[in-house]
Amino acid sequence: QGVLVGGLGTFAMVQEQFRGKEEVYVARRPVFRLDIDVLCLQELTFPAVVIPGNVKIKPLNYKWLSRATSFPRHVVEGCVEETIALYSFQLRNRQRLAFTFKDIGVLSCEDDVLCMRFYYDCVTGLESKASRIALLHT
């Protein structure tokens, strides 16, 4: 399952197999595939993230966000769009600010590398059995 935030990227949960010394572990872990306007990323590098084709991606649910925040849907949509536009503008103008996603992680740029760092609780919340392996590979 995944969520597309138009103009920014896709958050998804992927399931991967990792070989240990004696057994194979299956771990679920979060990933983020960046999808910002290329003009903003000219001088930046970022990890290439592959989201498998079997992961269902849905657009951000503005109706749910509207209910959760008690703001009209058009206000929520405008706020999200303006926030993404502002972040893109800052990247284009070499302002390397961190973009925090509550309970998920931080999209940050250090040494011209833009990457998503997921919070410990986000990773371990997805995976109970192989959480250490998921943390290592996230």
From TrEMBL:
Cross-referenced Pfam families: HU-CCDC81_euk_2 (PF18289)
Alphabetical list of InterPro entries matching this protein: CCD81 (IPR026295), CCDC81_HU_dom_2 (IPR040673)
Top-rank taxon: Eukaryota
Domain called CCDC81 HU: residue spans: 57-129
GO cellular component terms, semicolon-separated: microtubule organizing center
Protein known as: CCD81 protein
